[in-house]
Protein backbone atom coordinates (compact mmCIF):
# COMPACT_ATOMS: atom_id res chain seq x y z
CA UNK A 1 0.00 0.00 0.00
CA UNK A 2 1.52 3.39 -0.99
CA UNK A 3 2.30 5.55 2.00
CA UNK A 4 0.08 8.35 0.72
CA UNK A 5 -3.16 6.45 1.45
CA UNK A 6 -4.16 6.59 5.14
CA UNK A 7 -5.29 3.15 6.31
CA UNK A 8 -8.83 4.19 7.36
CA UNK A 9 -9.47 5.76 3.96
CA UNK A 10 -8.01 2.76 2.18
CA UNK A 11 -10.03 0.29 4.23
CA UNK A 12 -13.26 2.19 3.68
CA UNK A 13 -13.04 2.58 -0.08
CA UNK A 14 -11.05 -0.46 -1.24
CA UNK A 15 -12.82 -3.73 -0.51
CA UNK A 16 -11.47 -7.16 -1.48
CA UNK A 17 -13.04 -6.97 -4.94
CA UNK A 18 -11.07 -3.76 -5.58
CA UNK A 19 -7.65 -5.27 -4.89
CA UNK A 20 -6.83 -5.99 -8.52
CA UNK A 21 -7.70 -2.48 -9.62
CA UNK A 22 -5.74 -1.00 -6.73
CA UNK A 23 -2.68 -3.12 -7.50
CA UNK A 24 -2.68 -1.90 -11.11
CA UNK A 25 -2.97 1.71 -9.97
CA UNK A 26 -0.41 1.36 -7.18
CA UNK A 27 2.06 -0.27 -9.55
CA UNK A 28 1.80 2.69 -11.88
CA UNK A 29 2.01 5.51 -9.35
CA UNK A 30 4.94 3.92 -7.53
CA UNK A 31 6.99 4.24 -10.73
CA UNK A 32 6.73 8.04 -10.86
CA UNK A 33 9.97 9.71 -9.83
CA UNK A 34 9.13 13.35 -10.49
CA UNK A 35 8.40 15.95 -13.14
CA UNK A 36 10.65 18.35 -14.98
CA UNK A 37 9.27 21.64 -16.24
CA UNK A 38 9.32 22.03 -20.01
CA UNK A 39 7.71 25.46 -20.36
CA UNK A 40 5.20 27.72 -18.67
CA UNK A 41 2.40 29.77 -20.22
CA UNK A 42 1.00 32.65 -18.23
CA UNK A 43 -0.21 36.21 -18.50
CA UNK A 44 -0.45 37.60 -22.01
CA UNK A 45 0.89 34.38 -23.58
CA UNK A 46 -1.95 32.20 -22.32
CA UNK A 47 -3.62 31.89 -25.73
CA UNK A 48 -0.40 31.08 -27.57
CA UNK A 49 -0.44 27.70 -29.31
CA UNK A 50 -4.23 27.35 -29.31
CA UNK A 51 -6.39 27.37 -32.46
CA UNK A 52 -9.75 29.17 -32.44
CA UNK A 53 -12.55 27.20 -34.12
CA UNK A 54 -13.97 30.04 -36.23
CA UNK A 55 -17.24 28.37 -37.32
CA UNK A 56 -20.69 27.40 -36.12
CA UNK A 57 -21.15 24.50 -33.71
CA UNK A 58 -21.43 21.54 -36.07
CA UNK A 59 -20.51 18.99 -33.41
CA UNK A 60 -23.22 19.27 -30.74
CA UNK A 61 -25.72 21.36 -32.75
CA UNK A 62 -25.50 24.22 -30.27
CA UNK A 63 -26.99 27.62 -31.08
CA UNK A 64 -23.61 29.37 -31.22
CA UNK A 65 -20.89 30.64 -33.48
CA UNK A 66 -17.44 29.76 -32.19
CA UNK A 67 -15.72 32.90 -33.42
CA UNK A 68 -12.20 33.29 -34.79
CA UNK A 69 -9.31 34.69 -32.78
CA UNK A 70 -9.41 38.25 -34.07
CA UNK A 71 -13.13 38.61 -33.38
CA UNK A 72 -12.88 36.92 -29.98
CA UNK A 73 -10.07 39.27 -29.00
CA UNK A 74 -11.72 42.45 -30.31
CA UNK A 75 -15.02 41.64 -28.59
CA UNK A 76 -13.30 40.49 -25.38
CA UNK A 77 -14.71 36.99 -25.58
CA UNK A 78 -11.17 35.68 -25.03
CA UNK A 79 -8.66 37.81 -23.12
CA UNK A 80 -6.30 37.94 -20.17
CA UNK A 81 -7.58 40.00 -17.25
CA UNK A 82 -5.67 42.32 -14.94
CA UNK A 83 -4.85 39.42 -12.59
CA UNK A 84 -3.21 37.49 -15.42
CA UNK A 85 -6.05 34.95 -15.71
CA UNK A 86 -7.51 33.79 -19.02
CA UNK A 87 -11.18 34.58 -19.60
CA UNK A 88 -13.24 32.67 -22.20
CA UNK A 89 -16.88 33.70 -22.37
CA UNK A 90 -20.24 33.81 -24.12
CA UNK A 91 -21.32 37.14 -25.64
CA UNK A 92 -23.57 38.71 -22.99
CA UNK A 93 -23.93 42.15 -24.60
CA UNK A 94 -25.73 41.43 -27.90
CA UNK A 95 -29.50 41.34 -28.36
CA UNK A 96 -29.76 38.27 -30.62
CA UNK A 97 -32.72 38.27 -33.06
CA UNK A 98 -34.79 35.16 -33.76
CA UNK A 99 -33.07 32.89 -36.27
CA UNK A 100 -29.52 33.89 -35.34
CA UNK A 101 -27.03 32.33 -32.95
CA UNK A 102 -24.94 33.79 -30.15
CA UNK A 103 -21.15 34.21 -30.29
CA UNK A 104 -18.82 32.27 -28.03
CA UNK A 105 -15.43 30.54 -28.10
CA UNK A 106 -13.88 27.15 -28.69
CA UNK A 107 -10.08 26.73 -28.57
CA UNK A 108 -7.98 23.62 -29.27
CA UNK A 109 -4.31 23.00 -28.49
CA UNK A 110 -2.03 22.93 -31.51
CA UNK A 111 0.00 20.20 -29.79
CA UNK A 112 -1.23 16.70 -29.05
CA UNK A 113 -0.43 14.82 -25.85
CA UNK A 114 0.17 11.10 -25.93
CA UNK A 115 -0.36 8.26 -23.48
CA UNK A 116 1.86 9.02 -20.51
CA UNK A 117 0.58 12.57 -20.07
CA UNK A 118 -0.82 14.39 -17.06
CA UNK A 119 -3.18 17.37 -17.51
CA UNK A 120 -3.95 19.75 -14.67
CA UNK A 121 -6.39 22.64 -14.89
CA UNK A 122 -7.00 25.26 -12.23
CA UNK A 123 -10.05 27.49 -12.53
CA UNK A 124 -11.88 29.92 -10.30
CA UNK A 125 -15.04 29.95 -12.44
CA UNK A 126 -16.79 27.54 -14.84
CA UNK A 127 -19.62 28.73 -17.13
CA UNK A 128 -23.13 27.98 -15.88
CA UNK A 129 -26.72 29.05 -16.41
CA UNK A 130 -29.77 27.96 -18.37
CA UNK A 131 -28.79 26.75 -21.88
CA UNK A 132 -25.05 26.89 -21.01
CA UNK A 133 -22.92 23.84 -21.87
CA UNK A 134 -19.17 24.22 -21.13
CA UNK A 135 -16.48 21.57 -21.43
CA UNK A 136 -12.79 20.91 -20.94
CA UNK A 137 -12.07 17.76 -22.92
CA UNK A 138 -9.75 15.96 -25.29
CA UNK A 139 -10.05 14.06 -28.56
CA UNK A 140 -7.89 12.12 -31.00
CA UNK A 141 -7.25 13.20 -34.61
CA UNK A 142 -9.73 10.72 -36.10
CA UNK A 143 -12.75 11.18 -33.83
CA UNK A 144 -14.35 8.99 -32.50
CA UNK A 145 -11.90 6.20 -33.42
CA UNK A 146 -9.11 7.77 -31.36
CA UNK A 147 -11.17 8.37 -28.22
CA UNK A 148 -12.46 11.30 -26.21
CA UNK A 149 -11.99 12.24 -22.55
CA UNK A 150 -14.44 14.70 -20.96
CA UNK A 151 -12.90 16.12 -17.80
CA UNK A 152 -15.20 19.05 -17.04
CA UNK A 153 -18.70 19.05 -18.49
CA UNK A 154 -22.11 20.13 -17.36
CA UNK A 155 -25.31 21.77 -18.54
CA UNK A 156 -27.81 24.34 -17.36
CA UNK A 157 -28.02 24.44 -13.55
CA UNK A 158 -26.49 21.04 -12.76
CA UNK A 159 -24.88 21.10 -9.29
CA UNK A 160 -22.09 18.60 -10.07
CA UNK A 161 -19.50 18.02 -12.76
CA UNK A 162 -19.81 14.99 -15.06
CA UNK A 163 -16.74 13.07 -16.26
CA UNK A 164 -16.86 10.63 -19.17
CA UNK A 165 -14.85 8.81 -21.81
CA UNK A 166 -15.99 7.88 -25.33
CA UNK A 167 -14.56 5.14 -27.54
CA UNK A 168 -15.30 2.69 -30.31
CA UNK A 169 -16.84 -0.69 -29.27
CA UNK A 170 -14.75 -2.86 -26.99
CA UNK A 171 -13.81 -0.39 -24.25
CA UNK A 172 -15.89 -0.77 -21.09
CA UNK A 173 -15.92 0.65 -17.57
CA UNK A 174 -16.28 -1.32 -14.36
CA UNK A 175 -18.07 1.26 -12.26
CA UNK A 176 -17.35 -0.57 -9.01
CA UNK A 177 -13.60 -0.09 -9.28
CA UNK A 178 -11.67 2.26 -7.05
CA UNK A 179 -13.19 5.71 -7.53
CA UNK A 180 -15.06 8.31 -5.51
CA UNK A 181 -17.55 9.32 -8.19
CA UNK A 182 -20.82 7.60 -9.09
CA UNK A 183 -20.89 5.73 -12.39
CA UNK A 184 -23.72 6.00 -14.88
CA UNK A 185 -25.82 3.07 -16.00
CA UNK A 186 -23.88 2.44 -19.22
CA UNK A 187 -20.64 0.45 -19.03
CA UNK A 188 -20.13 0.37 -22.83
CA UNK A 189 -18.06 3.45 -23.64
CA UNK A 190 -19.12 3.38 -27.29
CA UNK A 191 -22.70 4.28 -26.37
CA UNK A 192 -23.65 7.92 -27.17
CA UNK A 193 -23.41 8.98 -23.51
CA UNK A 194 -20.05 7.28 -23.06
CA UNK A 195 -18.99 5.90 -19.69
CA UNK A 196 -19.98 8.63 -17.27
CA UNK A 197 -18.96 9.33 -13.68
CA UNK A 198 -20.75 12.01 -11.66
CA UNK A 199 -18.70 13.96 -9.16
CA UNK A 200 -19.76 13.42 -5.55
CA UNK A 201 -17.56 16.16 -4.05
CA UNK A 202 -19.17 19.41 -3.04
CA UNK A 203 -18.72 22.47 -5.24
CA UNK A 204 -17.50 20.77 -8.43
CA UNK A 205 -19.69 22.85 -10.73
CA UNK A 206 -21.87 25.94 -11.09
CA UNK A 207 -22.39 28.63 -8.48
CA UNK A 208 -21.04 26.40 -5.70
CA UNK A 209 -17.73 26.00 -7.52
CA UNK A 210 -17.39 29.76 -7.95
CA UNK A 211 -18.37 30.51 -4.35
CA UNK A 212 -15.73 28.07 -3.09
CA UNK A 213 -13.01 29.87 -5.05
CA UNK A 214 -12.80 27.23 -7.76
CA UNK A 215 -10.54 24.21 -7.78
CA UNK A 216 -8.27 21.84 -9.69
CA UNK A 217 -8.69 18.76 -11.86
CA UNK A 218 -5.84 16.38 -12.67
CA UNK A 219 -6.11 13.78 -15.45
CA UNK A 220 -3.64 10.92 -15.72
CA UNK A 221 -3.62 9.50 -19.27
CA UNK A 222 -1.55 6.33 -19.02
CA UNK A 223 -1.26 2.76 -20.30
CA UNK A 224 -2.62 1.57 -16.95
CA UNK A 225 -5.77 3.67 -17.33
CA UNK A 226 -7.32 7.12 -17.24
CA UNK A 227 -7.59 8.57 -13.74
CA UNK A 228 -9.21 11.92 -12.88
CA UNK A 229 -9.04 13.80 -9.57
CA UNK A 230 -10.83 16.92 -8.39
CA UNK A 231 -10.00 19.16 -5.43
CA UNK A 232 -11.85 22.21 -4.23
CA UNK A 233 -9.66 25.23 -3.51
CA UNK A 234 -8.92 24.45 0.14
CA UNK A 235 -8.11 20.79 -0.54
CA UNK A 236 -5.52 21.09 -3.33
CA UNK A 237 -2.51 18.82 -2.56
CA UNK A 238 0.74 20.55 -1.69
CA UNK A 239 2.52 18.90 -4.64
CA UNK A 240 0.18 20.61 -7.13
CA UNK A 241 1.56 23.96 -5.93
CA UNK A 242 5.11 23.05 -6.92
CA UNK A 243 6.23 24.93 -10.03
CA UNK A 244 9.35 22.80 -10.25
CA UNK A 245 7.47 19.63 -9.52
CA UNK A 246 10.17 17.06 -8.89
CA UNK A 247 8.49 16.69 -5.52
CA UNK A 248 5.03 16.10 -7.00
CA UNK A 249 3.82 12.86 -5.43
CA UNK A 250 0.66 11.42 -6.92
CA UNK A 251 0.48 8.86 -4.13
CA UNK A 252 -0.60 11.77 -1.93
CA UNK A 253 -3.56 12.59 -4.17
CA UNK A 254 -5.89 10.00 -2.71
CA UNK A 255 -8.51 8.02 -4.57
CA UNK A 256 -9.44 9.36 -8.04
CA UNK A 257 -12.94 10.61 -8.64
CA UNK A 258 -13.06 8.62 -11.88
CA UNK A 259 -10.97 5.54 -12.75
CA UNK A 260 -11.00 3.87 -16.16
CA UNK A 261 -8.67 0.89 -15.91
CA UNK A 262 -6.88 -0.72 -18.82
CA UNK A 263 -8.03 -4.19 -17.76
CA UNK A 264 -11.46 -3.36 -19.27
CA UNK A 265 -10.33 -0.70 -21.78
CA UNK A 266 -6.99 -1.08 -23.54
CA UNK A 267 -5.89 2.57 -23.50
CA UNK A 268 -3.35 2.34 -26.32
CA UNK A 269 -5.88 0.50 -28.49
CA UNK A 270 -8.80 2.91 -28.04
CA UNK A 271 -7.01 6.23 -27.44
CA UNK A 272 -4.36 8.00 -29.47
CA UNK A 273 -2.53 11.26 -28.72
CA UNK A 274 -5.09 13.87 -27.70
CA UNK A 275 -5.74 17.53 -28.44
CA UNK A 276 -7.14 19.48 -25.48
CA UNK A 277 -10.22 21.67 -25.91
CA UNK A 278 -11.99 24.41 -23.97
CA UNK A 279 -15.38 25.45 -25.28
CA UNK A 280 -18.79 26.84 -24.41
CA UNK A 281 -21.90 26.05 -26.44
CA UNK A 282 -25.59 26.79 -25.83
CA UNK A 283 -28.62 24.48 -25.97
CA UNK A 284 -27.65 21.77 -28.47
CA UNK A 285 -28.29 18.05 -28.29
CA UNK A 286 -27.81 17.77 -24.53
CA UNK A 287 -28.42 21.08 -22.76
CA UNK A 288 -31.37 22.03 -24.97
CA UNK A 289 -33.42 18.88 -25.30
CA UNK A 290 -36.24 17.20 -23.40
CA UNK A 291 -35.84 16.45 -19.75
CA UNK A 292 -32.23 17.67 -19.79
CA UNK A 293 -33.41 21.25 -20.26
CA UNK A 294 -36.68 21.01 -18.36
CA UNK A 295 -35.06 19.52 -15.26
CA UNK A 296 -33.75 22.90 -14.12
CA UNK A 297 -34.66 25.46 -16.79
CA UNK A 298 -38.10 24.60 -18.16
CA UNK A 299 -39.63 27.59 -16.41
CA UNK A 300 -36.96 30.09 -17.46
CA UNK A 301 -39.11 31.62 -20.22
CA UNK A 302 -42.58 31.73 -21.76
CA UNK A 303 -42.09 28.96 -24.34
CA UNK A 304 -40.24 26.34 -22.30
CA UNK A 305 -37.80 26.00 -25.22
CA UNK A 306 -34.05 26.51 -24.81
CA UNK A 307 -33.28 28.58 -27.91
CA UNK A 308 -36.34 30.85 -27.77
CA UNK A 309 -36.17 31.52 -24.03
CA UNK A 310 -32.40 31.85 -23.62
CA UNK A 311 -30.34 32.46 -26.76
CA UNK A 312 -32.74 34.94 -28.38
CA UNK A 313 -32.92 38.41 -26.83
CA UNK A 314 -30.58 40.26 -24.47
CA UNK A 315 -27.43 38.56 -23.24
CA UNK A 316 -27.44 40.04 -19.76
CA UNK A 317 -28.13 38.90 -17.12
CA UNK A 318 -28.69 35.47 -18.74
CA UNK A 319 -25.05 34.93 -19.68
CA UNK A 320 -23.25 36.97 -17.04
CA UNK A 321 -21.95 33.73 -15.48
CA UNK A 322 -21.16 31.99 -18.77
CA UNK A 323 -17.38 32.26 -18.63
CA UNK A 324 -14.22 30.34 -17.76
CA UNK A 325 -11.62 31.98 -15.51
CA UNK A 326 -8.35 30.02 -15.73
CA UNK A 327 -5.10 30.81 -13.92
CA UNK A 328 -2.20 29.52 -16.01
CA UNK A 329 -0.75 26.40 -17.59
CA UNK A 330 2.56 24.53 -17.48
CA UNK A 331 4.15 21.87 -19.64
CA UNK A 332 6.19 19.25 -17.80
CA UNK A 333 7.88 15.95 -18.52
CA UNK A 334 7.41 12.95 -16.27
CA UNK A 335 10.47 11.11 -15.01
CA UNK A 336 9.85 7.43 -14.20
CA UNK A 337 11.85 4.67 -12.59
CA UNK A 338 13.18 2.14 -15.10
CA UNK A 339 11.52 3.82 -18.06
CA UNK A 340 12.13 6.62 -20.52
CA UNK A 341 10.54 9.96 -19.60
CA UNK A 342 7.05 10.53 -20.95
CA UNK A 343 5.39 13.79 -21.86
CA UNK A 344 3.27 15.68 -19.37
CA UNK A 345 1.27 18.79 -20.09
CA UNK A 346 -0.30 20.87 -17.37
CA UNK A 347 -3.18 23.24 -18.18
CA UNK A 348 -3.95 25.62 -15.36
CA UNK A 349 -2.27 26.17 -12.04
CA UNK A 350 -2.76 27.70 -8.64
CA UNK A 351 -3.46 31.27 -7.67
TrEMBL record:
Keyword Ion transport among record annotations: no
Domain GH16: residue ranges: 1-295
Origin: domain of life: Eukaryota
PROSITE patterns membership: GH16_2
A biological-process GO annotation: glucan catabolic process
Pfam family, one: GH16_XgeA
Presence of keyword Hydrolase: yes
One of the record's GO molecular function terms: hydrolase activity, hydrolyzing O-glycosyl compounds
The name this protein goes by in its record: Glycoside hydrolase family 16 protein
Organism from which the protein derives: Suillus placidus
Amino acid sequence: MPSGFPLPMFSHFVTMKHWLAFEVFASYISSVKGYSLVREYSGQSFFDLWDFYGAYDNTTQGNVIWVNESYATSQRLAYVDSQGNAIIKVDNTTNVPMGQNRNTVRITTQDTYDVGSLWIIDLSHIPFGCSVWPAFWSFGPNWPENGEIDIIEGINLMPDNQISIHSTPGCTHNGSEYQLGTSGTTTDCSEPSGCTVMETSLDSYGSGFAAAGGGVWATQFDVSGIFIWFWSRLDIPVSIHQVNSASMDVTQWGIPHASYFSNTCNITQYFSAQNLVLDITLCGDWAGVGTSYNASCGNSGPTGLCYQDCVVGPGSPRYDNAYFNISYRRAQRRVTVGDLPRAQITIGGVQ
